[in-house]
Amino acid sequence: MERLFKVTAIIMLLTSMSIKAQQDKNPNVFLITLDGVRWQDVFTGMDTNLLNSDYTENKELLTSKFMGSSLEENRKLLMPFFWNTIAKEGQLHGNRTKGSKVDLTNKMLFSYPGYNEILTGKADDENIDSNDKNYNKNSTILETANMSNGYKGKVAAFGSWDVFPFIINDKRSGVPVNAGYMDASGDLNEKEKFLNEIQRQAPIVWESVRLDVFTHHFAKEYVKKNHPKLVYISYGETDDFAHGGLFDFYMKSLQNTDALIADLWSFVQNDPIYKDNTYFIITTDHGRGEGIEEGSKWTGHGSDVKGAEHTWLAILGPDVKAIGEVSNGQLYTNQIAPTVAKILNLKIDAEVMPGNPLELN
């Protein structure tokens, strides 16, 4: 009897290991958003009109950091990971000067509707017309994955903005969400305990949006411990600095966010579970004004701001055709969630997510 018990235990262990190994072979996706970052900033670098406007406090410093001898050099100085890595190994869509367009399908053109469209694959102007903390009635791709057999308990979300528990509907979806000034919970390592301790000791610039460095490291520590298969990370500083008319901080924050994404990619490519089996899909929830004149102010966005519907998209991963900066073509934000579903081999209802998945290879 004892021998039979031991044999049974060994079989169960081997079966468990086999299932885990198979799960680890399934692709991983990191969906990342940068709040309110314009396509112009990504593809053309620092805006000289804004540099020379009242929105800039230290023109000399920004010039020394972000101005080179060409447009290509300028954008590389601002976002080196995008232009040294993604442009060589992945795809960048949304440079409208080259005929590549990425647009929202929602008509609100601000954050909650934008994130809903990214995460659910469908605009919902009828029900989502504010940034209020209302639980989303729509199911996100995070929820869809978490309800599936292959990805249940392997989904997590992190955001700087404190509305994300409502957008993702953490109560219904079961997706763990750490956003705003929420502490990490559960069996914490020393770094997570330290982050909990210091995130409110650092300057609190906005009560509803914490500094991105905390969001990043909460996410990274969780990923290192738990190796989720689908991770959503939303960096938020850029939009709030822009709303405040702080062009200096907006530029520095955008460069810093690029570095945080680079740090995450470096970790992924050096982790045996994630290496060569992980996709990064990076985008924004909305555009913003194109200039300094009333009606097109860079500080704002929304249905009354020209250009706020224009966004961009970056993709990096094992089966992504390395075509770099794309010329010509029209993509829409509602295609992102179906693309995640396709990568993860999740079955979705075309009526629920009507956008077509992107052709990655």
Molecular structure report:
GO terms for molecular function: catalytic activity; metal ion binding. Residues 221-347 form the Metalloenzyme domain. The protein is α/β, with parallel strands linked by helices. It has helices spanning 2-25, 39-44, 48-51, 59-66, 71-78, 80-89, 111-120, 141-146, 164-167, 170-173, 190-198, 212-226, 237-243, 247-269, 336-344, and strands spanning 28-34, 91-93, 100-103, 155-159, 177-179, 230-235, 278-283, 313-316, 324-325, 329-332. It has a single domain (28-344), classed as Alkaline Phosphatase, subunit A (3-Layer(aba) Sandwich). The protein has 15 helices and 10 strands. The protein is globular.
What does the overall shape look like? globular
Return the average pLDDT rounded to an integer: 93
Beta fraction of the residues?
Answer: 5-15%
**CATH third-tier fold name:** Alkaline Phosphatase, subunit A
Low-confidence stretches: 9-22
Task: Specify the CATH architecture.
Answer: 3-Layer(aba) Sandwich
Question: How many extended strands?
Answer: 10
Gap between N and C termini: 55 Å
Quickly name the level 1 CATH class.
Answer: Alpha Beta
| Content-based structural category | alpha/beta
- Radius of gyration equals 21 Å
Query: Total number of helical segments?
Result: 15
Strand order of the largest sheet: 5-4-6-1-7-8-2-9
Helix fraction by DSSP (H/I, runs of at least 4):
40-55%
Could you give the order of the helices and strands?
HEHHHHHEEHHEHHEHHEHHEEEEH
